[in-house]
Amino acid sequence: MPYNTAMTDHITNTDHPAFPDYELDDFIELTTPEQFKAIGDPTRQRILGLVGERAATTSQLAEAMIQPKGTVNHHLKVLEVAGLIKVVRTRQVRAMTEKYYGKVARYAQLVAGSDDLYGNRMILQEVISELADEQGKGEDTTMVISHARLSPELAAEFIQRLQDLSNEFYNRSQPGAGYAEYGLIAGI
């Protein structure tokens, strides 16, 4: 779906030194079907991407995404109920209180040992969909599947290394419309 790049630049304005411009946790563990359903929707993923760079109001998001405010508000409520976003600040505008939404955590991860097949399936379906979309556009995509027999201690070491790599991937992100967006998914 198209973005209003002028508004996307406003939401992801790099003049502000903080990235994002509010406090958030490093990780949230996905444990409920509501959370998986919430992140499985492309519109909600776009919202998470935008508010992951800078807190934004319903109006700002609607304009950036070229979507009706009512539609964006619905998706914000789904994300809020699922515990994936929260109101990070408010501002009084005349007789109304304007809410700014932000993510609760930089990364979402499945709980180790989770037997939530619904959630696993949704995540994998989204990855397949994104890869197919990018390959259809001629974009570079890489997917690697490996299997190995490891001790629990060595598996824990690799898990920590993947989390560190994910942190580095996120921390190198550059806010703004001039950069291509890439995704990273990893699991052991």
Task: Describe this entry's structure for a reader.
- The structure is a single chain.
- The chain has helices at 5-11, 33-39, 42-51, 58-65, 69-81, 117-136, 152-171; strands spanning 25-30, 85-93, 96-103, 105-110.
- The model is unreliable at 3-10 and 12-18 (pLDDT under 50).
- α1 runs antiparallel to α4 (58-65), α2 (33-39) packs antiparallel against α5 and α4 (58-65) packs across α5.
- A hairpin with a 2-residue loop joins β2 (85-93) and β3 (96-103).
- The strands form two sheets. A two-stranded parallel sheet has the order 1-4.
- The protein has seven helices and four strands; from the N terminus they run αβααααβββαα.
- It is 45% helix and 15% strand.
- The protein has 188 residues and is an alpha+beta fold.
- It is globular, with a radius of gyration of 18 Å.
Radius of gyration: 18 Å
What would you call the structural class? Answer: alpha+beta
Question: Which term fits the overall shape?
Answer: globular
**Which blocks of ≥5 consecutive residues have pLDDT under 50?**
3-10, 12-18
Main beta-sheet annotation? 2 strands, parallel
H/E element sequence: HEHHHHEEEHH
Termini separation = 32 Å
What's the rounded overall pLDDT mean? 78
Approximate helicity band: 40-55%
Query: Biggest sheet: strands side by side, in what order?
Result: 1-4
Number of beta-strand segments? 4
Task: Please state roughly what percent of the residues sit in beta strands, choosing from under 5%, 5-15%, 15-25%, 25-35%, 35-45% or over 45%.
Answer: 15-25%
